[in-house]
Every structure is written in C-alpha cells, then in structure tokens.
Design brief:
The protein is of the alpha+beta class. It has a domain of 232 residues: Brix domain (Rossmann fold, 3-Layer(aba) Sandwich), CATH 3.40.50.10480. The protein is 19% helix and 27% strand. The strands form 3 sheets. Strands 1, 2, 3, 4, 5, 6, 7, 8, 9 and 10 form a 10-stranded mixed β-sheet that branches. The chain has a two-stranded antiparallel sheet with strand order 11-12. GO terms for molecular function: rRNA binding. It comes from Kwoniella dendrophila CBS 6074. It is found in: Nucleus, Nucleolus. Its main location: nucleus.
C-alpha cells in the first residue's frame, strides 16, 4: 500500500510553508504549467498559447524546450510540480507517430495521478476571430453536449480533466453583471453503433481510433434585455480558440492514490452548518458541493383524500318501495 510522503520541517519558516501546501478544506485555485517537449509544431505552440490565455492568471508558461515524455517518464513533471506548487500540466509534443500532440496531466502529493493524451485535428486561434475577448481571471461557464460525458469512461475522464483545468471551485451564486463573460462548449459526436458504451475503459491507443472527436469551442457571452425582469436574453459570439481533439491515450489513476486524493478532512461545526459535508441523517453534500436529501413518506391512502364537493360526485342512495316489482331511486339532495 502506498503512503503519502512526510517531510520533517527544519525550522518555523519551513513549517509554515509546508502547512500552506497541506490539504485544505477549501483548496486554492489550481495552477497549470504549460511546458514544451523536445519537438513541437507551430500548431501545438499556438494551441498551448490560447489554452494558456484562457487559464491565466493561474498558469505558468515554460518557453524553453524540455526532454519530457510523460507516458514514459514522469519524473520531470513531478520535479516541476514540487518546485512551483502546481498540480496541472499541459505538455506539447510532436512526432511522426503522434503529430500535434497534447498531454494533460494531474498531480496529487507531487506524483502523477492520471494523464490524458489528445491530438489536434483542426485548429483556429483567437486571432482569427474578429470578436471581443473575455477579461483575464474571469471564470468561464462550461457546457458538455453529449451523453458520452456521463456514461462512457473515456469521455468521463475528459470531462473531469477539463473541469479541473478551467472550472475551479463551485460558486453559490454568480452576479449577472460582470460575473459571466465567456462560455466553453465541449461537444462529442455520436458514438459508432459497433462500439459499446461501457465496453472501453482506459487502455491502449487502438481502442480510441473509432471514437468521435471532441470539439472545443469558446464564446463570449452578452446579456441583453428581454423585457422580463431578472430574465435577460443571452447572446453568444465565438471568440476562439476552436479546436477539434482526437482522443489517443489515457492513463487511469492508481486505485490507492485515487482513494487518497478523494479523502475529505474532518469538518468543523460551522462548515457543516454552511453546507459542507454531512449535517444529519439523510442529508449530505456530494462531491460537486450540491446538497442532497432523502424524504421518507407514508403510504398514501386515496380513500381519505378530500375532493371537491360537486353534486355529480355525491353517492345516491336507493329506497325499496312497497311494491316488489318497482325500485325507485331517490336523490337525497
């Protein structure tokens, strides 16, 4: 069983620095490092430039080339992660076998948690769109258009990785003015009929050849008057980048390391009352921060339900006459 590394501080300054890097109840915004491999193409560099612009200011760009091959040796990424207190990486590579290649990596405790390799099939940069751009540091809305992102294990990994990169922490409320400027729309094409939805997990690159592409689009968002109070209309204008990704390889996380990364710290009473963690029986907060509750109701007895008092619904009583041959119905009303 793998254990988390522990470092004994030498003095008070190191102790304070290590305390800031320890797991927190509410983590700080994750920093992403964009690093080039030994060989890159113009397309890869331009894609990384636009992805870096969307991530700023929580991003670091390494302009020099580095001899990095994440799937073969991840020691360089782990070194950069510990030195820069970063947990997200985008590595740009280019080769004849895998042209225009991007590798998204996540770290936990200074080690690789999981990796996702995407190939760039089509690309249009921000500069090619004559439209206004979003401000630096504004969090985007993220929309995923396909059931594959909820049922297919490979596309679920893509969704999880991209949400970690760009969505950040969940917000309780978003101001309509100045709080929303752009939307990241991610779409996957229909799955071929000869491929089972749950038949493919992480694995070899051959399993991904026939899978549909992932279309990454970014739009600026403008609120215009709709004539209804507090319900404005939304106008979208594509601002770029526009990228079509082809799924290549996925390295799934180690089970023990994933279990440790999902472990939650103990919460104080104030945090529990504010909606974090478990408050009482049948009420809890899920991983996305949404409160979920269960209601247990008694079996409903429809015979006791009070309906409207309508003349046509009243029960008519019957009275037998003195004659044995004639039955007369009498309406009590």
């Amino acid at each position: 069983m793998s254990m988390l590394r522990t470092i004994k501080p030498k003095n008070a300054r190191v102790k304070r620095a290590l305390a800031q890097r320890e797991p927190q109840i509410v983590e700080n915004e994750k920093t992403a490092i964009f690093v080039r491999g030994q060989a890159t193409s113009d397309i890869v560099r331009n894609v990384m430039k636009d992805l870096y612009a969307l991530k700023r200011p929580n991003a670091i760009n390494f302009s020099r080339k580095n001899d990095i091959h994440p799937f073969e040796d991840s020691s360089s990424l782990e070194f950069f992660a510990n030195k820069n207190d970063s947990s997200l990486f985008v590595t740009g590579l280019h080769s004849k076998k895998r042209p225009h290649n991007l590798v998204f990596s996540r770290m936990f405790d200074g080690r690789i948690l999981d990796m996702l390799e995407l190939g760039v099939d089509d690309f249009k940069s921000m500069d090619e769109f004559d439209s206004p751009k979003s401000s630096v540091g504004i969090r985007p809305l993220m929309v995923f258009h396909s059931d594959l992102f909820d049922v297919h294990p490979k596309y679920m990994s893509i969704k999880s990785m991209l949400l970690d990169f760009y969505n950040g922490h969940a917000l309780k409320e978003i101001p309509l003015i100045g709080g929303i400027e752009h939307v990241i729309s991610i779409t996957a094409g229909p799955l071929p009929s000869d491929i089972e939805v749950n038949g493919l997990g992480g694995g070899a690159e051959e399993d991904t050849k026939n899978l549909p592409k992932v279309h990454f689009r970014v739009y600026t968002l403008k609120l215009i008057s709709s004539g209804v109070a507090k319900q404005p209309k939304i106008q979208l204008t594509e601002m770029g980048p526009s990228i079509d990704f082809k799924l290549r390889r996925i390295q799934d996380p180690d089970e023990e390391l994933l279990k440790m990364s999902l472990k939650r710290p103990k919460l104080s009473k104030n945090n529990i009352e504010s909606g974090l963690g478990k408050k009482k029986k049948n009420i809890e907060t899920d991983q996305m921060g949404d409160k979920i509750g269960k209601l247990h109701l008694e079996k409903q007895d429809l015979s006791k339900m009070q309906g409207r008092k309508m003349k046509g619904l009243k029960i008519k009583k019957t009275k037998t006459s003195t004659s044995a041959n004639d039955d007369i119905e009498i309406d009590e009303e």
